[in-house]
Please model this.
Amino acid sequence: MKKYFLFLLLLPLLTACGNDDVLDDSIDAAIEALEHNFDYEGAISELEGNHVGTINEPYSFAPIIDSDIWYSNDQSERVAAMQVPEDILRNLTTEALVTTCLRFNFEFDYGAYDNALFGMMTILNNEFNGYKELQKRPDAAYELLKKMRSMDPHTYAKAFDPESYDIYYPDKSILIFGFFSTMLASDFYPQVFQGKALNITLQLTKWWHHQMNKDKDIWGDGKYRFMFLMARIRLYQGGLSEGDKALLEKLLNSETNSPAAFSDSDFHRIQELTKID
Model:
């Protein structure tokens, strides 16, 4: 059952109620401390793998978008046409592959499902060969987290124009933050939760959250922001009671992500467990 709404993660991204920046001195201080107390670049560099590709330019979908296939009523035909040829796919550097994956034009379809994570797994498993190729790369965590670090929500918010959307570069849309965080929360790339990568993922999620709080007129109040990703992080961190673990697993695996699927007390507990300090 598909419903075209973007719940929990995308809804705040589409909420705009004014043009004034919401600047909170305590948040500014928190992010400044976060910047100085965590060596993102140093930590991420330790994850670097050894995949050597020969093509460092992301794959271009422009020829497909400019062709008659793009205007076909058969979406499966359009999706099939946008697969990266295998000889190119294998030789993309992982950095170029990550950008290619974020530019796949049907990635936001995951929001059409009642359960955003189910929709995400459908997209990742069935719609684009680049996603599965990225799973195989030994430096996937390194490049995904490096990309995450390069995406500053505050910068995106300052450039936000609701009238413009470039189909050639969906990774430039503010919706990309919802896609990226849900993609990580899906556990399709467990490398970002393993070993040292887990703490980096947590710190970068906190950084995104704090940066978004500078522009609440664009990103919303953050009530449900990154709930899925934080739930996945908490499960990997461990140390949860069986009851808390069951609640987070239900959030990530239930047929719907709606709060209505939980009692008020259970959903309140989920909010506590996934809250970003």
The chain has one domain: 10-274. The longest helix spans residues 197-212.
